[in-house]
Amino acid sequence: MDIKQSPSRLVVDDTTVLSLLATVIILLAAYISSLHLLSPTFNPKLRILFIWHAFDALIHFILEGSFLYNCFFTYITLPSHSSTSDYPQPASSVVSQGTVHFLGHKDRLYGSRHGDSFMTRLWMEYAKADHRWADTDLTVVSLELLTVFVAGPLAIYVCELIRKRDETRLWFWGSVLATAELYGGEDFARFHSWGGE
């Protein structure tokens, strides 16, 4: 699946509609979980915080987790007669060309570009704006590992603190998570601009 130039006008295709629908379903799941886990008399401000953090965790686990899944399990095997120099590896361009192979496989290329599921199409749509999401760019993979395995569980922990009404820990860990989310997004943008892309 190749990344095509973005058209000059808005194109709403099946992937766009399904992506937006998935996001709405994830938000509804967060809302429904608040109805089941919090009492009806729960403080509305804390309920909104609960829904936001549950939504945040689900986005990290489902959508961003699917990106990691594609990076580790979606691949093509290169023809045996070709060398990897015929197929430049995104991971190898970070260090010295041709010396780094993602997961140590010299005969494979990993990433959403090489799949055909709904989630690979979603990431290929995203890759139209930033090509690194089509492959296994090590910077993106590193940040997403932190997001899925640290920020996601921390968002669930914040939901639990809200449910228990443990406001002392809630405000500390909620602030840590919010700062991490802001800082991670800012660094990601900075890394991208340094790459000159």
Task: Give an account of the 3D structure.
With 197 residues, the chain is mainly alpha-helical. Helix content is 63%, strand content 3%. The chain contains 6 helices and 2 strands, in the order H-H-E-H-E-H-H-H. A two-stranded antiparallel sheet has the order 1-2. The radius of gyration is 20 Å and the shape is elongated. The chain starts with 13 loop residues before the first helix and ends with a helix. The model is unreliable at 92-99 and 186-197 (pLDDT under 50).
The amount of beta strand, in percent, is under 5%
H/I helix tally: 6
Helix content: 55-70%
Structural class by secondary-structure content: mainly alpha
Low-confidence stretches: 92-99, 186-197
Number of strands: 2
Order of helices and strands: HHEHEHHH
Labels describing this entry:
disordered C terminus, 2 strands, 197 residues, mainly alpha, 6 helices
In short:
This protein is mainly α and 197 residues long.
How would the blueprint of this fold be written?
Elements: H1 14-37, H2 44-73, E1 75-77, H3 90-94, E2 108-110, H4 118-127, H5 138-164, H6 167-194
Antiparallel strand pairs: 1-2
